[in-house]
Task: inverse folding
């Protein structure tokens, strides 16, 4: 019996850990394979981070595919997160290089964006003059690069902000014939907006739709 309960506890912990972790690929965030071309170049990503995410313990995994013609010991990948250096190194001997970086709360800007810059330096020959116009100088950031994000339950309701889901808000609209649930939803939304943005007023408007509570932008 003790073994049975121990197994159940283990499965519960495993399922909880899996549920708390979210894998989000660059492709899912709208980014296909991104080619960085030339002797030196860069690519930048601005990724919106949900307020329910805990950055401490989350990680960034980049997959970099270099041109087969590059001299790997003389070619470099640099990663900058939130305008701070996070990684620098020469290319590995793998056909696709993996760069894994731990994230922290300091990596997110004040407006909840994760800014990632990848800068490259490519070398095909040991003569920089010959390298300038060589079309074989490129690296690709693969679209299956991803963020491994942890869900946070700390101060969850204090972190919830409708403004994190919509860039701007102008009104809270409700049905012409609202029921009790509609009125509660409007009151909750107004209360949150009033608390979080004291300088911005939310205007209530009636709309003919009898079923949908709508926040207009």
Result:
């Amino acid at each position: 019996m003790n073994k049975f309960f121990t197994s159940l506890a283990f499965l519960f912990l495993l399922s909880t850990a899996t549920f708390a972790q979210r894998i989000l690929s660059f492709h899912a965030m709208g980014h296909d394979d991104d080619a960085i071309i030339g002797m030196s170049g860069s690519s930048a990503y601005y990724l919106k981070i949900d307020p329910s995410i805990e950055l401490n313990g989350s990680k960034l995994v980049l997959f970099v595919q270099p041109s087969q013609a590059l001299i790997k010991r003389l070619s470099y990948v640099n990663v900058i997160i939130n305008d701070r250096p996070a990684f620098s190194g020469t290319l590995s001997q793998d056909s696709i290089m993996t760069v894994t970086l731990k994230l922290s709360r300091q990596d997110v800007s004040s407006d909840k964006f994760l800014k990632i810059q990848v800068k490259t330096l490519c070398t095909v020959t040991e003569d920089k003059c010959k390298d300038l116009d060589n079309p074989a100088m490129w690296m690709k950031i693969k679209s299956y690069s991803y963020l491994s994000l942890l869900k946070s339950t700390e101060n969850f309701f204090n972190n919830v902000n409708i403004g994190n889901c919509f860039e701007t808000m102008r009104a809270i609209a409700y049905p012409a014939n609202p029921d009790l649930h509609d009125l509660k939803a409007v009151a909750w939304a107004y209360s949150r907006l009033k608390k979080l943005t004291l300088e911005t007023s939310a205007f209530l408007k009636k709309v003919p739709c009898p079923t949908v509570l709508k926040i207009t932008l």
In short: The radius of gyration is 24 Å. Confidence is low (pLDDT under 50) at residues 1-19, 199-217. DSSP finds four helices and 13 strands in the chain.
